[in-house]
Every structure is written in structure tokens, then in C-alpha cells.
Design a protein that fits this description.
Length: about 300
């Protein structure tokens, strides 16, 4: 029997004074062997030079703890919307920001950058998809790296694009650099977009037919506060939402997703990160009823 290659982790903070070394230490404290981080604040594009972010020490710690940098992921800031055609200035901002993030990601030795496809802001999905594809074409023409962008599957709130596999496939089909594009599946987002996450076999068969299973570069493992098709995008802690522990455990250990980084983005509880216990439960398959109470009662 083939040995499972499980890479599981969570969001960690690139915070002073340790920066990248601190990211690795935080991940290790959760029992993780991968992680995702922002190269600066997620809500803006203010960034310290990567030369100041303790990257060499972080890489050394990755080696010491058996963390494969090829399985580590960077998340692009939320403020990027390369699909917005209503504000021309957003196009150049998106291009410049994505190029910068790709180069910064490369500086860390990381090869996957997760990007939200954006929103059409009333202009219509087809127009927005064409613009985003062209923005990404220009990005890949000039960024000078081999970092791949993983387009995240979205929940479909507001005027978001990327909530259907077909829309993701359209973006890739319009690319001059399709080898640079992949996908980040998000369990909460797929549920909220209307996909049946309880039939993982059929779900991934459909994804493979429309996009291609080899495009999956990472998976966000999140429970959802919402029923299927709610289009709301509200993450819940593992076992406390509409998807539930058993199905999320299946995603983590599903053979077709073997070797792909699984990343938790579940909410903090009473100011505390829940990732250590959530990761342990998803590794072991042993769910602890009422586990959140130990955080909720902590003052």
C-alpha cells in the first residue's frame, strides 16, 4: 500500500521581530508540516523589504523540522482585484501588486501564491474574467519567477468571480502561460457556492473534467457556518459547521489529494489559535466533542 504523504498546516503570522523564522516556529508549535502566510498585512500592500524578514533563519528552521518549502504557501493580499473593469486604475495596481507578491514569494523559496480571482463589480462575469486573464498574462510576461498562482475557488458572495469550476477554467483557457496557473480548493467556499462537498468522488470528478485534477496546488480546509448554496463565505471551526468533521477528515486524507498542502483557515476562539487541536484531530481521525469549550472558557 502506498504511504500517505500528508502536508497539513494553517495560517501563521509574519510578525516582528522573528518574521519568517517566527512563521516556522508557530507552525511547528501546532504540529504542522506546512503553513500559509502573507508577506505583509492582508488588507494593504505596505511591505517590508524581504531582506529584513529573517528568511535565511526561517529556511534553516524548515530544514531542521522537515518542512518542505515546496509545500509552503503564500496568500496574496485581499485588496487585489484584477477583474475590476469599472476603475481603470485598479488594473495597473493589480498587475504591479501581483508581480511584487510573486517576486516576494520567490524570495522566500516558496513556489505557490494563492490569489482571489476578484469581483466584476457590476460589469458582468464574462468581462471580468477576460480582464483578469489579460492582467495575469501581463504579470507572467514580466515577473521573472517560476512561482505558480493558485486561483482560489470562491463562495460567490456579491459579484465575486471564481465561484464555479467553469469560471476558473475560462481564466486558465485565456492564459498565455497556463503552466503558471493552478487552483486552491476551499471546502467552505465550495459548499457556500452550491457544490455538494459530501460527495467528494463526484465533486473531484467534475473538477477533473472541467479544470483538471492536476491543477490543484493546495486545499483550504474549513468548516462552514452556512448551508450549501448560501453564497456567504463564513468559515467555522472544524466539526462545528455544516460540513462537519468526518467529511473534512475525508478531504484531508483523500487519495487523489495526497501530497497536496492542506491549510486551515478556521476562526480564532476567544483570541486563541485553534490550530494545534484541529490539526491533531484531522491527523488522527479522533474527534473531541465540545473541544472549543477549552478556548471559550479561557479568560
Amino acid at each position: 500500500m502506498k504511504e500517505e504523504k500528508l502536508f497539513i498546516g494553517s495560517h501563521v503570522s509574519l510578525a516582528a521581530p522573528s518574521y519568517f523564522a517566527g512563521c516556522v516556529e508557530e507552525a511547528v508549535s501546532y504540529g504542522a508540516n506546512t503553513f500559509i502566510f502573507y508577506t505583509g498585512a492582508p488588507q494593504n500592500t505596505t511591505r517590508k523589504p524581504t531582506s529584513e524578514l529573517n528568511i535565511d533563519e526561517g529556511k534553516k528552521l524548515c530544514l531542521e523540522h522537515g518542512i518542505d518549502l515546496s509545500k509552503v504557501v503564500v496568500h496574496a493580499p485581499y485588496v487585489i482585484n484584477g477583474a475590476n473593469v469599472t476603475k481603470p486604475e485598479m488594473r495597473s495596481f493589480a498587475k504591479d501588486t501581483i508581480v511584487s507578491e510573486l517576486r516576494r514569494t520567490n524570495d522566500f523559496g516558496v513556489c505557490i501564491l494563492v490569489l482571489h480571482p476578484g469581483a466584476h463589480v457590476g460589469a458582468g462575469a464574462e468581462t471580468a474574467i477576460k480582464q483578469l486573464a489579460e492582467v495575469l498574462n501581463e504579470v507572467f510576461d514580466s515577473d521573472g519567477t517560476n512561482v505558480k498562482i493558485a486561483l482560489e475557488t470562491m463562495a460567490g458572495k456579491g459579484s465575486e468571480i471564481g465561484s464555479s469550476f467553469e469560471q476558473i477554467a475560462q481564466i486558465i483557457a485565456l492564459s498565455r502561460h497556463p503552466d503558471r496557473l493552478g487552483v486552491c480548493l476551499d471546502t467552505c467556499h465550495m459548499n457556500d457556492a452550491g457544490y455538494d462537498v459530501f460527495d467528494i468522488d463526484a465533486l473531484l470528478e467534475e473538477f477533473d473534467r472541467v479544470v483538471g485534477i492536476k491543477r490543484i496546488l493546495c486545499v483550504h480546509i474549513n468548516d462552514s457556518k452556512n448551508v450549501r448554496g448560501a453564497n456567504k463565505d463564513r468559515h467555522e471551526n472544524i466539526g462545528y459547521g455544516e460540513i462537519g468533521f468526518n467529511q473534512l477528515y475525508r478531504f484531508v486524507h483523500y487519495p487523489l489529494l495526497d501530497g497536496i498542502p492542506k491549510i486551515l483557515e478556521t476562526p480564532y476562539i476567544n483570541g486563541h489559535a485553534p490550530y494545534k487541536i484541529e490539526i491533531e484531530m484531522l491527523k488522527s481521525g479522533h474527534y473531541i466533542d465540545g473541544w472549543k469549550s477549552q478556548f471559550e472558557n479561557d479568560n
